[in-house]
Amino acid sequence: MNAGILPIATPRETRRAMWKLLAQRPGRLALTVLVLLAASCCGLAAPAILGIMVNIAASGGEVVSLLWLAIGLLAAGGAGALLGILGQNLLARICEEALAGLREEVFAAAVRKPLAQLEKAGIGDVVARVSGDVEAVSEAISGVLPAFTSAAFTIVVTLLGLGVIDWRFAVAVLIAAPLQIFTLRWFLKRTAPIYRTVRITEANRTEQIIETVHGSQSVLALGLGGKHADLVASASRETIGHSLRGIGYLTRFYNRLNLAELLGLSAVLVVGFWLHAEGVVTIGAATAAALYFYRLFDPIGLVLGQFDELQKAAAGLGRMFGLTRGTASGEAERTAVERPARGPASDAVVLDKLTFSYPGQRPALNAVSLRVAAGERVAIVGTSGAGKTTLAKVVMGLEKPDDGRVLVGGLDAAAASAAELHQRIAMVSQEVHVFSGTLAEDLRLAKPGATSDELRRVLRDVGAAWHEMLDDGLETFVGAGGHQLTPEQAQQLALARLMLKDPPIAVLDEATAEAGTGSATMLDQAADAALAGRTSVVIAHRLSQAATAHTVVVMDQGRIVESGSHQELLANGGRYARLWEAWNTSLSRA
Fold first, then answer.
1. d(C-alpha 416, C-alpha 421), whole Å
2. Whole-Å CA distances, 278 to 271, 272, 275, 283
């Protein structure tokens, strides 16, 4: 099981958050309660009218009276049914609207989470929360919660009706309550952890499926299809095993509820016989009391039985609220209270004795200090594992330093809100995603109001003349299910988005590393166009990018070991000079 899953709200936090969500519509919620209460009161009329009819028949009363009572019985039943349907629809609509808002909050919270936390949790956990968990809650809201609420009203009103006939009938009904309460507590105690575990194991299964599909080419090329199928099957078996345990408890739960109903009905019949024999109640009243309890069978069974579905929904809600917990308020609080420290106006990026370690590993960054002046381009080079990408993540605020600080555009990257930070800095990484939609829609993610002329201009600036040859131009559908862009074209698209967003500071994390030799020059030129006029930190895999930078910083094992211009470092004959010689030798052999 994934130990790095995202937070899960406690049951108390879930109840509090759900009530707060529903309370945003107080008027409609009050109307729904009144309608459901009226429906339950109409349902009370049927046993009472039947009891009166029994008394009339036993005393030889007029048939006309029975006819009018029968009409009243039909009217009460019809009104109760209509009001019940209306109340359930009102409640379902309120809850569905609340769920729609919650779904948006969950998605927004997911994209605001630190990248490292999302990577540790795995994409399966995130996908499960915005899909499977939402589906479980939606099913409960549309099919369970309205009926559950209506049944709960019916139980309360019916018990009051029994008390009106004679308080001893209400006492007789309560004989079944201890067994019902004990059974429910026994069931909830054992199944609540099971349903939480099922949601987690389903997320793990989703993770395995997504990883297999995402890496399908490698899986097929290496002949790992059978192994990955076994991993998915193993995750599925784990989920099924926990689900079957829950079903076993559910079966025993219903058996005990049936026993409680038998005890309760027997008690009501015995009390009715005794009270009628004593002349306290009529036979019609005793009949009405028995019918009242019989009428409770379905709502009590529904209320107790639907706890199973509600628990599944509660498990999903706990995971959804866990993702949103403290996200918005925490960011607002940081913005309002922790006024980020401001650095020197001339330095766009300042790293001051920066130290960072991944859990259980040696420091990836060790006392790194660096200043990038406004308008300066700094290239970070070094062998694999030197700490270059980690440095980029910390500068972007995706990772929080263990010690030291990072100032970006005058803001403390660790303390500033994501919104503030993203106004000042943006990153293009080696892994570029092409979003499904038209080419224009993909570009406008960076600037929603951009005109078509602006889109064409930035595409031309990064050398993406290929867009003019597409069948539908900017309206060509790209991404999954659409026109597939080459890796080089995807990189040009990402650089064009950077130009549209137009941040004062940019970070390129090996953005041209995957380019072939023929495309390298083209992408280097595209990167130059995108970075023109802005402060930039370039994690350079290709040393051709380092050669054009104002300053080259060489890293090794999390430390800066050299720094200077390209010509200065070549003249020094140190580590950078050796890297440059090795890189040029590899190009000549290619």
1. 6
2. 10, 10, 5, 11
Indicate the CATH number of 347-589 among 3.40.50.1360, 3.30.450.20, 3.40.50.300, 3.20.20.80.
Answer: 3.40.50.300
Q: What is the DSSP letter of 25?
A: S
What is the rounded distance in angstroms from the CA atom of residue 584 to the CA atom of residue 590? 10
Vertex 436, ends 516 and 529: CA angle to 5°? Answer: 45
Output the CATH code of domain 11-326.
1.20.1560.10
The 10s digit of each residue's pLDDT in 42-91 is: 766 766 666 677 667 766 666 677 677 777 778 877 887 888 788 778 87
Strand partners, 408: 349, 411
Q: Side chain identity at 416, as an amino acid letter?
A: A
| Domain range list for the chain | 11-326, 347-589
Cα–Cα nearest to 445, from 491, 500, 390, 391 = 500
Tell me the residue type at 357. S
Residue whose pair of structure tokens reads 């308080």 in the numeric block: 167
Contact 425, 506 (CB under 8 A): yes
Q: Residues 134-184: pLDDT tens digits? A: 766 776 666 666 667 777 777 777 777 777 777 787 778 777 778 877 887
- What is the enclosing helix (H) or strand (E) of 305? helix 283-305
For 325, phi then psi, to 5°, come to: -60, 120
Q: Rounded to whole angstroms, how far apart are CA atoms 76 and 41? A: 9
Q: What is the pTM of this model?
A: 0.56
Do 434 and 442 meet the contact criterion of CB atoms below 8 Å apart? yes
Sheet with 363-373, strands from edge to edge, namely 363-373, 347-357, 403-408, 411-412
**Mean pLDDT (the chain, rounded):** 78
How far apart CA 176 and CA 197 sit, in angstroms, is 32
